[in-house]
Amino acid sequence: MNTESDGVNPQARSWRRMFMPLAENVSEARRGAQLVLASWAASDDAAETIALIISELATNAVRHARVPGRCFEVAMTYDGGKAIEIEVSDGSPHHPVVKSFDPDATSGRGLLLVEALSDAWEVRDRAFGKTLWARVLS
Prior knowledge:
The protein is an alpha+beta fold. Helices cover 33% and strands 26% of the residues. The protein is built from three helices and five strands, in the order E-H-H-E-E-H-E-E. The chain has helices at 24-39, 44-64, 110-117; strands at 13-19, 72-78, 83-90, 120-125, 130-137. Strands 1-2-3-5-4 form a five-stranded antiparallel beta sheet, with helices on one face. Strand 4 and strand 5 (130-137) form a beta hairpin. Helix 1 (24-39) runs antiparallel to helix 2 (44-64). The chain is globular.
């Protein structure tokens, strides 16, 4: 039996969903996350931040990391306290590159936003592809 004394928080929660790499599924991922965050009673600020991060990372998965026959996956884990971790995984082994800010650019700011809005973020290699992980404190 897991208890707080085991180091496992009984309030911890997780959510995971797979999506076909289609543009319309970015908004589906965001909406799904928003519903889950509301059920977890995440603060409005944290929920808005997480929804934006998921939108940016899912958009990157659809635009730049599409691999035929592979879905992208969105996951969130709430520690039951103040941290919510976000993962967006795709089938591409290529790591994204943070671009310098260009005020005239119409795209390319996603990772800059993730970097600015998250407490921490990183790219993690997987057997097939990669995971972009971020943590938001609520």
